[in-house]
Description:
This protein is of the alpha+beta class. The protein has three domains: 17-101, Rossmann fold (3-Layer(aba) Sandwich), CATH 3.40.50.20; 130-190, Dna Ligase, domain 1; 196-377, ATP-grasp fold, B domain (D-amino Acid Aminotransferase, Chain A, domain 1). The chain is 32% helix and 26% strand. It has 14 helices and 17 strands. Helix 1 (25-36) packs across helix 11 (295-304). Residues 129, 152, 159-163, 189, 191-192, 197, 220, 223, 262, 274-275 line the site of adenosine-5'-triphosphate.
Amino acid sequence: xxxxxxxxxxxxxxxxxxxxxxxxxxxxxxxxxxxxxxxxxxxxxxxxxxxxxxxxxxxxxxxxxxxxxxxxxxxxxxxxxxxxxxxxxxxxxxxxxxxxxxxxxxxxxxxxxxxxxxxxxxxxxxxxxxxxxxxxxxxxxxxxxxxxxxxxxxxxxxxxxxxxxxxxxxxxxxxxxxxxxxxxxxxxxxxxxxxxxxxxxxxxxxxxxxxxxxxxxxxxxxxxxxxxxxxxxxxxxxxxxxxxxxxxxxxxxxxxxxxxxxxxxxxxxxxxxxxxxxxxxxxxxxxxxxxxxxxxxxxxxxxxxxxxxxxxxxxxxxxxxxxxxxxxxxxxxxxxxxxxxxxxxxxxxxxxxxxxxxxxxxxxxxxxxxxxxxxxxxxx
Length: 380
Ligand SMILES: Nc1ncnc2c1ncn2[C@@H]1O[C@H](COP(=O)(O)OP(=O)(O)OP(=O)(O)O)[C@@H](O)[C@H]1O
Ligand SMILES: [Mg+2]
């Protein structure tokens, strides 16, 4: 453990070690950003050969409930962060007395539970759509009576890529959805007839300084993020509002690190907050190639206590996820393109629905604003 020599400006010196809980691609890209700043990344995950482990300077392969392994990890690193929001909160509770954890356990806990999240959004002054907690079958009927149909029934925890959700369009949909999703805790949300989906990402330091990236438009295929357009082709005041919402949320959470906020844009220009992730986010992968300082670089800077400069976007960008077996067909052609940055995550098994990598096409500044159909403009 390097520690901070007294008298030096705040911030971990080169050679310090950043502990990362979780071994997926977000940890991989964070570890690479840490290395670029002279840090060592120590990855802690239960799987021995995940994308993050492959590029780590040090590794712990252990369960998130292994107290001895966690204590040894805490002793070996200068600060801990996480790349996977389903790390048990108890893991951070174990680590927090031993080593700084950034973001802290509170942001993790809120992000893990849609009900806490919605309440926190409301308390922070973020606009949200109508929702109700659902604890039993009569409660579902009462929630439908209050909210109406269509609606979306979701598990409050452990959902991703649209798993643990059911869209309810008619009363006949209720029983099958209930049978599939209960007895897990559930939330009913009004179905939002959004025009677009938008996300915004902030990086916030321990001193409260906060920078935001350009808002991004996100398009999904089979409930998985397919395409991100940056900057989102939306009016400037809407983009500014999205950025203000994520900065406000980061402030309310007193978060140190990167925070992503997913929003729905309504046809009348209003934004509604959907969910947050207190970590780098798939919709920010374009920042690796289109910004001087990526979301991963700013996350590492924030947790290490370094200054947070403006990200300085120097291109417009279209990012496409490479998902499942189709990604194998696509990558050689993408590797041959001069206008595309290809990122592969080192996963061997291209199962359906699995994120294998992503590709970002760079465009001149302003190209997305003036494109009538940005999607068509950039076949990737
Ligand atoms: N209330 C809603 N109204 C309309 N569409 C919704 C609603 N909630 C979710 N969706 C759609 O389903 C997608 C996934 O939902 P959500 O982001 O809440 O869950 P998730 O499974 O955690 O997704 P991920 O982790 O991939 O972001 C959204 O991006 C949106 O397209
Ligand atoms: Mg989502």
